[in-house]
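Sample entry (456 residues):
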Amino acid sequence: MSLFFITTVPGFPTNHELAVQLFLQLAVILAIGRLAGILFKYLGQTQVVSEMIAGVLLGPSFLGFIAPNVQTFLFPISVTLNIDGAATPIPHPSMTILYALSQIGLVLYMFLIGLQFNFNILNRHLKEASVLSLLGVLSPFILGGLLGLFVADDSRLFTANIATWQAALFMSAAMLITAFPMLARIIYESGFAGTKIGTLTLSAAAFDDAIAWIMLAIVVASAKNSLSIAIITIGGGILYAGIMIFLGRPAFRLFKRVSKKDQRMGMDTLSLLLFVLVLCAWFTDAVGIYSIFGAFIAGVVMPRGNFVDEVSSVVERLNVTLFLPVFFVYSGLNTQIGLINNPSLIGITIVTIIVAFLCKGGACFFASRISGGSLIEASMIGGLMNARGLMELILVNIGLENNIISPALFTILVLMAVATTFVASPLFKFLYKLEQDNRLKNRDSEQIYALNQPKL
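Predicted structure, serialized as tokens:
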């Protein structure tokens, strides 16, 4: 059925109606997102977490409960068409438009985060980053897998066609995943993008998430009896990383030379840069790694210096204030809280959240400590790495769409993601303030000691 034919079906919104709907949706998203940011700021939350909560508030869990007609009018999930005399529901195109806009915002933002990745700091702390990544994978893999084995036979959580090992591997991936885009924004908003803590956390999170997506690809491929899916994902990811590091990195120095020559970021240079970025996002999405990793690696291999400042000044403000909030709100709209109404499911939810804190936050805290990090530094890294956020939502949506998990397990993992993410930001800010206070006390103590020394 062609697109032209669909748009002529009675009941299907016209292009003009979709444009009107989009402008209203953007207005509501921006207003509620900013209002939530102001309110939740007093709870120690960053704007990124506030926007995730705003998405939940605008979805069926809150607005859909108190004013279902308003929620359906603003964010219609489906449209019913009368085709051949039968009422046929199809996804509403306005939500498809929001999804596309959200992906643009996410790709642009992760590209900016990659631009700010500090290799010098990573090289100085390579051992700590390696230990952090390793334990950040092994502990969730083991504990998450054990939890998956425990609940694998529960028909309320996994579908009948899923084997025990598939259930265990899926739960391992769910425990392993981090809130990479949200983590990046928390670090950026807190001013830690180029610091030791920020660099270690982002590098470990990128590695851990790549492993999680590979594990998910194996589960999806085995569930579909298609080994090619896993091969394409793993092979495509390795191929992309190799091309970007060994071929892309020297080639992209052209951007720096052209910008330096013109003394600014010209339109032609910006167009070429965006072409490279969206091509990278397309390829990594096509092979199943997800576009944010393509964008992040593209940013990492770009030249440093004034080029970074020029790109950020052009892209950052509009993206952070307009496109990126759409991503968080769109994901939050798909969250339904209230499906857990059974005592045993409530118990599984509590156990899942406890295991999530122990296997990720606890393991990363331990990894930082044995690598020489201070108690406060280890706590900050553990708290950040423990957040799952919307990457977890993406993962569980894939599991639900591929008939791997049930809506009940979907909800449990969403609640786990909210709990681990909600704690991350205020804990990080508290520990950061504590570290600053300790430094001031130590400095004052040293000054007092120096003043009390006898003069020679």
